[in-house]
tRNA(Met) cytidine acetate ligase
Amino acid sequence: MKATGIVVEYNPLHNGHVYHAQQARETSKADVVIAVMSGNFLQRGEPAFVDKWARTKMALQSGVDLVFELPYRFATAHAPIFARGAITLLDAVGCSSFCFGSEDGDITPFTNSLSLINQTETVYETVIKKAIQDGRSYPNALKEAYTSIQDNTSQTQLADLTKPNNILGFHYMEAAQCIGSMMKPTTIQRRGADYHEADLHAHKVASATGIRKSYFSTGSMDEMEPFVPQATKDILFDWQAERGHFGNWETFYPYLRYTILREGPIRLASIADITEGIENAIYRAALKHDAFQPFMAQVKSKRYTWTRIQRMLTHILTGFTVEQRETMPAPSYLRLLGMTGDGQTYLRSVKKHLTLPLISKVATLSNDSLTMDIRAADLYAMALGNCQHVPKIGLDYLTPPIRTHHFGSNDSK
C-alpha cells in the first residue's frame, strides 16, 4: 500500500482541511493518508480548541486514515523544529510523499528557493544571526536573510516566504532534505481564507482562526456551521454539551498566572524559550493583570512576537525547561491516536519496517518526551475541567487508539 503524509493541527478541522486531505490522496495516488497532528498545545503557543482525541475523530471522519501525535517538544516549537519533528514521523511511518497547502500552489518555487539557500548558506545564516542580535524577531530575521540572497540571483521563480503556509511548506522540504528522506514533496493551492484571516465570509472555506474568533465573540456555533463538515459539527456540539466551553488562553490564564507567581523570575528563567530577562516582564505583568489580553499587552514588545511569547507561556504552564528540551533532539516514537480500517491494514503491512517504535498504549514505553506529552494533556484537561463527573486526568492511559471502519463511522469513543 502507498501512503502520503500531511501535517495538521485541525483547530478545528474545517472544509479547507477536508479538501487538503482529498487532494493529497488524489495527487499522490495514495491508498492511505497519514496525518501527524499536534497534541493539546499548538505551534503558535495556544491551547487547542478541543483536545487531541476530539480532533482525531474529526480527522478519521474527514479523509484521514492514520493520526499520529506530534510530540509536545516539536508541536510547540518555531517553524523549523516543528517541521523537522513532523517530517521525521512521516518518514518513519513509510510515507512515499507528503503534501502541504501553500499560497503558491506549485512545488517548483519551493525547490528553487531551497536550492538558492543551500548555495548561499553562509551568507543566509550570517544575516539571520546579525538580525537577531540587532533585536529582530526570528520571522523577520528569516525574511531579511531571504531577501538579501534574492537580490543576488537571476532566478525569478521563487517561493514567497512572507506567507505563513509557504513558510511552513518550505521548512517541511528543508527538513526532508536534512534527514535524507526520499519522500516526494507536493503542494496544493490553499483555497479560501488566509491562514490568519479572522473573519468569516460567504465562501465555504474559512480559516480556523476565523472559526474560533466567531465562536469566542458570539458564544455560538451557528456562524461556523457552513465552514465545517458534519463530523466537526457533531463533535463540537458534543464537546460543548459536555464541557460548556472550548480551549483558549482566557480560560487557561488563571492557571498560568498562578504558575508564574508561584515560580518567580529566577525559576522562570530556566523555562524553554525564556531569554534576555523577559521573565521579569512576565512576572510583573502577572502581578498586575487578572485577564490574559491586558497581561499580553504589557509583555508584548517589538523584539518578541505574540506567537513567541505564547510559546514561552505554554512552556511555563507545562513546566518545560531548557534542560528537558535538550534531551529531545528528534522524535523517538510514533504515538498512534487513531486509524480507519485502511489505516490499520497499512500499519500491519509496514510494522516490521518502521524506523521508530509504534506506541498504541503509553504504559508500554518509558520516555521523557512521552511523559511531557502526557503532562501537557493532563494540564489541558484540568484547566478545562471535568465533564459529567468523569475524570479527564490520565486520558492518555485510558484511551486506546480511536478506530473507524470508514469515513463517518466511529466505533470507539
Observations:
- DSSP finds 18 helices and nine strands in the chain.
- Strands lie at 3-8, 32-38, 66-70, 97-102, 184-189, 334-339, 358-359, 402-406, 409-410.
